[in-house]
Specification:
Layout lengths: L2 H12 L16 E2 L8 H7 L5 E6 L19 E8 L9 E8 L5 H8 L13
């Protein structure tokens, strides 16, 4: 199963979309929020503009685990492996989407996959 198909299956079967604020994007483009890659979800939350919506996708399936993210869990146990924002500069964005995996599964191999852009198609809300 390809990552794209896995993400689609995950989205259809057990997608979890968490909106932290109410806002909408009108940008039309997706911009990689590279400053969030490899950081904890806790750090990502603090970097996202206060008035922006934050969408969180648990893509644990790509590391062989079940999706278990739930709002209210400890954000420092999740690592961002893909991120996009509605604007080129994240501070100007009204939407930021991140894909996360459990930090315990963020191995060197997963880190390399992240650097190679393998998880980019896991974040799609920033597209118009």
């Amino acid at each position: 199963m390809t990552l794209s198909n896995a993400v689609r299956a995950f989205t259809v079967g057990a997608s979890l979309l968490v909106l932290v604020a109410c806002s909408s994007s009108g940008s039309g483009d997706s911009h990689v929020a590279s400053e969030l890659l490899g950081t904890s979800l806790e750090s990502a939350r603090t970097a996202v503009p206060e008035d922006a919506a934050l969408s969180i996708q648990d893509i644990s399936l790509v590391v062989g685990l079940e999706a278990t993210y739930r709002e209210g869990l400890s954000d420092d146990t999740w690592t961002v492996v893909s991120a996009c924002s509605s604007e080129e500069r994240m501070p100007e964005s009204d939407l930021v989407e991140v894909a996360v995996v459990p930090t315990a599964s963020f191995t060197e191999a997963v880190k390399e996959r992240m650097k190679d852009g393998e998880f980019r198609d896991a974040v799609t809300s920033c597209h118009g």
